[in-house]
Input
Amino acid sequence: MKTLVVGVGGVTNGGKSTLSMSLHQQIPNSCIIAQDSYFKDDSVVPVDGRGFKQYDMLDALHMDTMMSDVDSWRRDPEAFLKQCGLIPEQTAASEEEEVFVLIVEGFLIFNHRPLNELFDRSYFMEIPYEVCKKRRSSRVYRPPDPPGYFDGHVWPMYLKNRREMESMVSRIVFLDGLKPKEELLAARRAEKAADVCVETLK
Output
C-alpha cells in the first residue's frame, strides 16, 4: 500500500475547499480532513483589545484532535475511509500497489509544524486583497464578522501567518486562486508536482 498526504492551504476564501473537493472527486481512495472542522467553541476563543475574536490563530483550533485524525488515517487509510462513509476502490493489480491519498485542507495547516512535516505535496492558494475582502463579505459566518474585522484582524493575521509559514516551509507550490479549478488541476498534471496524484488522475 502506498500513501500520499497532500496539503492545500491558503488565504480565507481563496479556493482551498473547491480545489480539495475537485482533487477528492478525481482521485480514487482519497478523503479530506478540513481544518475548519476543528475550531474550538466560540466561548473559549480569545478576544483582543478591540473586541475581535482571534480565530486566525492555532490556539483557536483543536489541533490535537486534528492530528489524531490524521494519525488514524496514516495507521489504516482503508479503515479511515470506511469510517468516513466512503467505499475503498480496487484500482491496482495488487494491494501493495494500491494508493491512498489524504487531502488536508485549511488556512493554518502549514503553520503547525507536526502536521507540516507530514506533507508529501504542499499547495497554497492566494488571491489579491480586494478579491479576498469581497468574497469574505459575501459569505455568512456564525458568528458574523463584526464591522472592521477583515481589515483589523483577518488580513493582518493572514500576512503574519504567511510570513511565519514561509520561514518554516520551503517546498510549497503557490497557486492563483483566481484561475478556474480545471486549469489548476491541468497545471498540476503538466508539471508533475504530485507524481502519485498525477497517475491516479489519468
